[in-house]
Amino acid sequence: MKCEQKGSERPSVRATYCLHVLAQQYLAMESATQASLPADASSDAVRSGSVYSAAEIEAERFRAMAQMARAMGHSARNAMQSGHACLQILGFKLADRPDLIEMLDRVQTSQDRLLAIFNELNEYCATPQLQLEACQMSELMQSAVRLARDARPGNDVDIQISAIESRQTLRIDPKLMQRGLMRLLLDAMDAGASTIVARQIPSGAESVGNVSVEISDNRPRFGEIEAQKYFEPFAGRADNLGAAFAKRVVELHGCQMSVDGASQHGAKITFTLPRM
User: Fold this and answer.
1) Nearest of 216, 211, 140, 215 to residue 178 by alpha carbon
2) Buried residues in 173-203 as b, exposed as e (16+ CB within 10 A)
3) pTM > 0.85
4) How far, in Å, CA of 86 to CA of 83, rounded?
5) Do the strands 268-274 and 210-217 form a parallel or antiparallel pair, or are they unpaired?
6) What is the pLDDT of residues 244-276, one digit of tens each?
7) How deeply is 264 buried, as exposed, middle or buried, from its count of CB atoms within 10 A (0-12, 13-18, 19+)?
8) What is the CA radius of gyration of the chain?
9) DSSP per-residue string spanning 92-133
């Protein structure tokens, strides 16, 4: 895929044009995929006798999204790198203009965030081969908290880990699960939560062989309506993939994740993890 523009145009304009073209191509690809599916295909349930199962349809969606994310990143990377270099040079020329330097920093931050969205989308769409091994529950949670704090050094949110059995052993892909839980914590931090509590809860009859965990926070303006779309990619904040990624990681391990917004005073995410 190529985005052809005149060489005299600014890098930021070329990058925007590339994203526009690629977005249109993705919409066309998605429409063609939906048109090729049988009329009785459902993404909510597997219907006996259907040509495609729900899992196959979902897998095809992820493959299309991953292909599109790679294409977007490849097509826009050169334009974004050129724009980054131009901003650095401009910064040197505006060293004596602090009022403009501040605006320049904000432009650079926006470009960095755009690149991060590409990387997050690609990570979300990938289907990794799980490297399962034994991992202590307490170590998993502490590692996720450290990653979240490192990613948001200026955020002083109070993250509490309570009622986690020190010798509780899981069978998971530690690195992938750490990133999933980190993204879940970052989602709460970015949504304005000042307190996050992670704790182990009693497992129900439906969770035999698994460990149940609850992560609750006090983010503002979160209720049942927000909970219904919480795990949808880019739902709510336009650049959000954290909750959707965390849910996918948990499901790759054969477990489940849900959210409750009934309290109207924050989100309560409950999920299971496979016990060793």
Assistant:
1) 140
2) bbebbbbbbbbbbbbbbebebeebbbebeee
3) no
4) 5
5) antiparallel
6) 889 989 999 999 999 998 776 789 999 999 998
7) exposed
8) 22
9) HHTTT-HHHHHHHHHHHHHHHHHHHHHHHHHHHH--PPP--E
